Amino acid sequence: MVFLKHPWPEKVINKGTQTLESDRLILRRFTMDDTELMFKNWTSRPEVSKTLSWWPAEDVEETRELLRDWTSSYARDDFYIWCCEWKENHEPIGSISATVKNAKFDEIEIGYAVSDLYWGKGIATEMLKMVIRFMFTECKYNRLYAMHGDDNPASGKVMDKCGLKFEGVHRKQGKDKYGNYYDMSVHAITRDDFLEEEAKKAAEAK
Ligand SMILES: CC(C)(COP(=O)(O)OP(=O)(O)OC[C@H]1O[C@@H](n2cnc3c(N)ncnc32)[C@H](O)[C@@H]1OP(=O)(O)O)[C@@H](O)C(=O)NCCC(=O)NCCS
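Above are the sequence and the coenzyme A SMILES. Below is the predicted complex in structure-token form.
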């Protein structure tokens, strides 16, 4: 019996955390030199961790330890976590990660956080758009999703603005820092969605 191979569209090419840039932001690899400003701008701030699973860092050493782990993981070409640098003052003001969740189906999960000192300026939207483009056009991933709880509508708004579609609710998939489970809204975009939208924009621009 002859087994025919399914014609797979395009193979994922992991390129690791590469520098990306927009008018206001540089997305780049973290370095250990980011420790103090990362601690000051977000890891120590209760407002940022309120909707997340971690407690605000009490000591800068906790942030240093995290960065030690992240910076050593950059050796892997499937490890994606960017430091968001605000060009105006060159400070690190947030992070965005793309975690390979389902390698078999070329699927990644996105997570992000922005210093509350910079909220409402469109920063999360700007960085997510850059990462979507990179993951689909450079790395050829098939599907990208992100999740948020009911207490975090701003995050859902960011996902909507970046073209992710609401797919449903995963019941009790989240667990807060007190150990309570909560429902997660799942939003996703596929590479086909992304390319279709790009083609539409190009046709409109003609
Ligand atoms: C969620 C988060 C990343 C948003 O960052 P940001 O840079 O302020 O996001 P943006 O400015 O790009 O967009 C936020 C949008 O949410 C809207 N928004 C803010 N608060 C809102 C609320 N309570 N309800 C509905 N929408 C809200 C803003 O008006 C904005 O939409 P607009 O541009 O149409 O006005 C930021 O609040 C954060 O880091 N929170 C803590 C960490 C976190 O929750 N990460 C996500 C885990 S799922």
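Strands lie at 20-21, 25-28, 80-86, 91-102, 107-114, 143-148, 165-175, 181-190.
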